[in-house]
Specification:
The structure holds two protein chains of two kinds.
Chain A: E1 12-15, H1 19-30, E2 35-38, E3 54-55, H2 59-62, H3 66-82, E4 87-88, E5 92-96, H4 103-114, E6 120-122, H5 124-130, E7 140-144, E8 147-149, H6 151-164, E9 168-170, E10 173-181, E11 184-192, E12 197-202, E13 205-208, H7 214-221, E14 227-237, E15 245-248, E16 257-261, E17 264-268, E18 272-273, H8 286-299, E19 308-319, E20 334-338, H9 339-343, E21 348-353, H10 359-374, H11 395-402, H12 408-417, E22 434-436, E23 441-442, H13 443-452, H14 458-465, H15 477-489, H16 492-510, H17 516-532
Parallel strand pairs in A: 1-2, 1-13, 2-9, 5-15, 13-21
Antiparallel strand pairs in A: 3-8, 4-8, 5-7, 6-7, 10-11, 11-12, 14-17, 14-18, 14-19, 15-16, 16-17, 20-21, 22-23
Helix pairs in contact in A: 1-6, 1-10, 13-15, 15-16
Chain B: E1 2-8, H1 12-23, E2 28-32, E3 44-45, H2 60-63, H3 72-76, H4 78-94, E4 99-100, E5 107-110, E6 116-119, E7 121-123, E8 139-145, H5 153-162, E9 166-172, H6 175-182, H7 189-197, H8 201-212, E10 218-222, H9 231-240, E11 243-247, H10 254-269, E12 273-276, E13 280-285, E14 291-296, E15 304-311, E16 322-323, E17 328-329, E18 337-338, E19 361-362, E20 369-372, E21 375-382, H11 392-395, H12 398-414
Parallel strand pairs in B: 1-2, 1-15, 2-12, 8-9, 8-10, 10-11, 15-21
Antiparallel strand pairs in B: 3-7, 4-7, 5-6, 13-14, 14-15, 16-17, 18-19, 20-21
Classes of the chains: A alpha+beta, B alpha/beta.
């Protein structure tokens, strides 16, 4: 494409900095388009960062939704290649417990094989050897190619690549209006919450990748998408109880997936319909916590005595097709809407439905449609081009190039950033000082994130580096990282408010599960921050009410 | 084994009670799991900073009379609170711990976040401010140890500048610290203090700091000096030659740990037995419901007998109370606690709002006696943060409750 004439003119504007928007920005930029990506909060703040982080094999959908299952397994294999620094190849088990119908297993395996998923029935004893934390009473087990994927890293890597291909990224920028000329959307009006300024940006095509919030974006264009907000609550445990993804081999139900991820594991989810007005303020109820625990202990009995770090909930961006009250039988399928043919609105498309696993395919479909509308004949290359950080598969090799004697913090950094770790200065003694001891995040890595990864506050930093995600939930590291942000931003008041918001954001996830050791940790936090530090509530609440 | 009094919990409250009893001629034992709030001390003890209705307190001795009925101060009565508050200063002096402050007028401390909070007794390391907006000097040099992240120079500079003090931030680099820096998790207050305590190293640091001074009339340093011996702090002040203010760091607190060690050593010097790293597992009762003996993990079959028992086991953090999803209990004796039913009533969804659970704790009868199933236990006392009835964080009274209830319980035992 030719160079845009002005700074605020692009070929395509993508609204939404979740994984779908980030993936679409990357695909469009790789096909030579001049891209603007707009996100109203931080990257990966919506459903993208609020799920299991499960690298679905598709097996879960094999019986009920063949199309989704096929998409999942294809994308599963692609992500293992292009996003290896975001993926952990853990394998998965579907276990049958005495209370389940063992007859379901045969139908399950048959459906998996038909969808192209390599499902293998194994002896329950072998299953327990493979995953000792699994319920020893299991009567059946099927091995599938499930894995774990870090959605924050995956989003960040897509954004990095989009930027490397010339895309412009605006975070903390909310679309307040779509600019319409006749029956065509020609651009967006954006309010930047940091600079407190409004600006207009123009492009012949605007892509709505707003997830559940996409309904509002579509309304601004004058189109109606009936979203189906389905809340899913999850619990994070303080230890990595299992190394293999554990699923229940039965019709999908509550709390039947336990996924390991980095230092922790997650059980989920519940599914409940929520009014659209509540999607900005998801909280987890005591009943949901009790249900998740009760079902989780059936998968892995040791969860009963494992400390719970926090609870959180996300909203699935499902597009309503019928009145199913559970929200589970709705297809997880991808929905690509060309509003020109659907509603007579030109220059505007929506990409929604789908799931984390199929983000790349969603991006491909959306980009194909954008290119078709712009008469561009370039083919998609995202299925075989590694994401930044995943170019080199040998971690030993990376560390040799970077550090003479890599310690565990170096390894943790490579784990999070892959080959991009080469860009992180960790040579000087000060840079290797640990900011976050639970997750081994160093001064150098925090500096890199502040300078290179669109980090504006401590919560952003957590999503990029895992600062404060460990067992202490940001006890002391938050204060250390705040000091570094104060240096970078040269404003202590802003940093102090930021620190208060960060602490409060962690608390929102902790108080629903606050007893035993979690209450001990919380009391300690109160003593440190309200007592020793003498901090009181923030003057302005962050709008990001997670 | 037989003692006059056994104290469960070796934090501030348990130690103050133990020292007082032991010095009065009793034979005491303290069973301590080893954790204590002293390890993350703010450098001061607070007596009362704010009333539950939000009114700021200038004169704690007067305001103590305006607290709710269930507050530990109300249980003891204003007169007793004031008596023990005055006694506390001499008490610490006798233990060789230098403190300043007055129960009739709060002073102010500088927090690690650069805030200012009311304080009662201030440890000798720190400089109490007479008013909330006292200016510490015209020009301040704030010096950190290179690579130490738990001392936020920016937050401090910002707060001093508000009072018109011009600030400059600098860092000293010491070869002796490089070994700590090799292992990146080692740059913490206590480790730095251990290195500084070694021969001549604090002096080297102080001379380096002195070299950095240009026109500054005040130097601000992190309180990471003198883990074993407080005199290092004064020697640094002398060496630097300019007014030097030590500011509290994020945990661990070097002056707090030193104070805890000094109290323990005072207790042992007086003949008390300090059983560190042990946990009380259960108790046996007499027919009248009083406690006959307790058992511990380390003593196994050997029971520890005493005439009186003092429970100074702390709140949730120290496992003085334990919360399950549906209830809260005291794990050793099962004493009666005051708390709200239903965990939805324990918390506020905003971290910065007052949290109910902070005010949960033991309900006492006839002074500081514990009760079990509503029956007063004549020889079991509760002191310190296990006591309920006060949101100590909001009211700023945790230190005062720990010290004053400890002294009151000791007197009650001695006057039996």
């Amino acid at each position: 494409m030719a160079q845009a004439r002005r700074d605020n003119e692009f070929d395509v504007i993508i609204v939404g900095g979740g994984i779908t928007g980030a993936g679409t920005a990357r695909d469009c930029a790789m096909r030579g388009l001049r891209v603007l990506l707009i996100e109203r909060h931080d990257l990966a703040t919506g459903a993208t960062g609020r799920n299991h982080g499960l690298l679905h094999s598709g097996a879960r959908y094999a019986v009920t939704d063949r199309e989704s299952a096929e998409e999942c397994i294809r994308e599963n294999m692609i992500l293992r290649k292009i996003a290896r620094h975001c993926v952990e190849e853990t394998e998965g088990l579907f276990i049958t417990l005495p209370e389940d119908d063992l007859g379901y297993q045969a139908k399950f395996v048959e459906s998996c094989l038909a969808a192209g998923i390599n499902a293998e029935v194994i002896d329950p004893k072998d299953a327990l050897r493979m995953e000792p934390s699994a319920n020893p009473e299991l009567i059946g087990a099927v091995k599938v190619p499930d894995g774990a994927v870090d959605p924050f890293r995956l989003t960040s890597a897509n954004v990095i690549d989009a930027k490397l291909h010339g895309a412009k990224v605006l975070v903390y920028s909310e679309v307040t209006k779509l600019i319409k000329e006749g029956d065509t959307i020609t651009g967006v009006e954006v309010y930047n919450a940091i600079t407190k300024e409004s600006a207009k940006y123009y492009a012949p095509i605007t892509v709505n990748a707003g997830g559940i919030w996409g309904q509002r974006i579509a309304e601004m264009a004058g189109a109606r998408i009936n979203m189906f907000p389905a809340k899913g609550a999850l619990l994070i445990f303080g230890h990595r109880v299992n190394n293999v993804v554990l699923n229940r081999c039965r019709k999908p139900a509550n709390a039947d997936i336990l996924v390991p991820g980095d230092t922790i594991c997650l059980i989920g989810t519940t599914s409940s319909r929520v009014p659209f007005g509540e999607v900005d303020n998801m909280y987890v109820t005591a009943d949901e916590v009790d249900l998740l625990l009760q079902e989780g202990e059936k998968l892995a009995p040791s969860l009963a005595t494992t400390r719970i770090l926090r609870a959180y909930a996300g909203v699935r961006p499902l597009v309503a097709t019928d009145d199913d009250p559970s929200g589970r039988n709705i297809s997880r399928g991808i929905v690509l809407l060309d509003h020109e043919t659907r509603d007579g609105i030109k220059g505007f498309i929506s990409i929604t439905g789908g799931k984390l696993m199929t983000y790349r395919l969603m991006a491909e479909w959306a980009t194909d449609l954008v290119c078709k509308k712009l008469n561009i004949g370039k083919a998609c290359r995202t299925m075989d081009t590694p994401l930044p950080g995943s170019e080199n598969e040998n971690i030993e090799e990376i560390s040799k190039q970077t550090w003479a004697k890599p310690g565990t913090p170096h390894k943790a950094t490579i784990g999070r950033h892959g080959a991009r770790a080469l860009n992180i200065g960790l040579k000087d003694g000060y840079d290797t000082s640990l900011v976050c001891e639970c997750e081994e995040v160093s001064v150098g890595e925090v500096k890199y994130a502040i300078e290179e990864l669109d980090v504006h506050n401590l919560v952003d930093l957590r999503r990029r580096t895992r600062v404060g995600m460990g067992t202490c939930q940001g006890e002391l590291c938050a204060c250390r990282a705040a000091g570094m942000l104060a240096d970078a931003h040269q404003c202590t008041e802003r940093t102090k408010n930021d620190l208060k918001n960060f602490i409060n954001e962690r608390w929102k996830g902790m108080y629903p599960v606050c007893w035993s050791d979690t209450l001990r940790e919380s009391e300690y936090s109160q003593w440190i921050y309200s007592g020793v530090c003498g901090l009181e509530g923030p003057e302005t609440h962050n709008e990001d009410n997670k | 084994m037989k003692f006059d009094t056994i104290i469960i919990g070796g934090g501030l409250s348990g130690l103050v009670c133990g020292i007082k009893l032991q010095k009065a001629g009793q034979k005491c034992a303290i069973v301590s799991a080893g954790q204590s709030a002293m390890h993350f001390s703010s450098g001061t003890f607070d007596l009362l900073g704010r009333l539950p209705d939000g009114t700021a307190v200038e004169n704690p001795s007067e305001a103590a009379g305006r607290l709710d009925k269930g507050h530990p101060y109300s249980i003891l009565g204003t007169e007793a609170v004031l008596k023990y508050a005055d006694e506390a200063k001499d008490f610490f002096a006798e233990c060789g711990i230098s403190v300043s402050g007055d129960a009739r007028k709060n002073s102010w401390r500088i927090t690690p976040a650069g805030e200012r909070k009311p304080a009662w007794l201030t440890l000798g390391d720190f400089t109490p401010l007479a008013s909330k907006d006292e200016k510490i000097g015209n020009r301040a040099l704030i010096v950190n140890i290179l690579g130490y992240l738990d001392f936020n120079t920016k937050f401090l500079a910002d707060s001093f500048e508000k009072q018109g003090t011009e600030c400059r931030i600098a860092a000293v680099r010491l070869d002796e610290m490089e070994r700590l820096r090799k292992n990146p998790s080692e740059m913490r207050a206590t480790n730095i203090a251990r290195v500084m305590d070694r021969d001549g190293i604090w002096e080297k640091a102080a001379l380096q700091i002195k070299e950095l001074i240009r026109e500054e009339d005040v130097v601000v340093l992190p309180a990471v000096f003198g883990l074993k011996d407080a005199s290092v702090v004064d020697k640094i002040r002398e060496t630097i030659g300019v007014r030097t203010i030590f500011a509290a760091t994020m945990p661990p607190s070097v002056p707090g740990i030193r104070t805890q060690m000094a109290l323990r050593s005072e207790f042992e010097k007086a003949g008390g037995r300090f059983f560190l790293g042990d946990t009380v597992t259960g108790s046996e009762c007499r027919e009248n419901g009083e406690i006959e003996s307790v058992g511990t993990v380390n003593f196994g079959d050997i029971r520890l007998h005493a005439d009186n028992f003092v429970l100074a086991s702390g709140s949730f953090f120290s496992k003085g109370m334990i919360a399950s999803p549906s209830k809260i209990y005291e794990p050793i004796f099962g004493i009666d606690l005051n708390y709200a039913e239903g965990r939805g009533n324990w918390f506020d969804g905003c971290f910065w709002n007052r949290q109910n659970y902070i005010s949960f704790g033991a309900c006492t009868k006839d002074g500081l006696h514990a009760s079990i199933n509503g029956n007063t236990i004549g020889n079991l006392y509760v002191i310190g943060s296990l006591l309920g009835g006060s949101n100590t964080l909001y009211e700023g009274c945790g230190g005062g409750i720990a010290i004053i209830t400890a002294m009151a319980a000791a007197d009650s035992i001695l006057n039996k």
